[in-house]
Amino acid sequence: METTTMTIPAMQNEAIAIAVAKALESVDGVDSVHITLAHSRARVAFNEALAAPRDLRAAVETAGFVVADDAPARKSCCGGCGG
Q: Where does the HMA domain start and stop, copy by copy (predicted)?
């Protein structure tokens, strides 16, 4: 399991957060999505054998939202420690 954090600048309200979460959850291999509205971020846990950060980015962009360029660069093994 791998975790990545994506920044979606337009994610400023609950309706957009729900749309982003649904887009991410539609990607095969996604285990969980945690949205933080205060920082416009989505933390996604996924099976790296089934999905890659580029797939997550594509899902968000297909839903009509921009992902900040720094987004998929931050990843860790499980997201628990943030390392």
A: 2-68
CATH no., domain 2-74: 3.30.70.100
Query: Residue 73 carries which side chain, given as an amino acid letter?
Result: A
Domain spans of the chain? 2-74
Where residue 33 falls (left for φ over 0; alpha for ψ -120 to 50; beta otherwise) is beta
> Model confidence over 43-69: pLDDT tens digits?
999 999 999 999 999 999 999 999 998
Whether 39 and 7 have beta carbons less than 8 Å apart is answered as: yes
CB atoms within 10 A of CB 5: 21
Structure tokens at 65: 């939202």
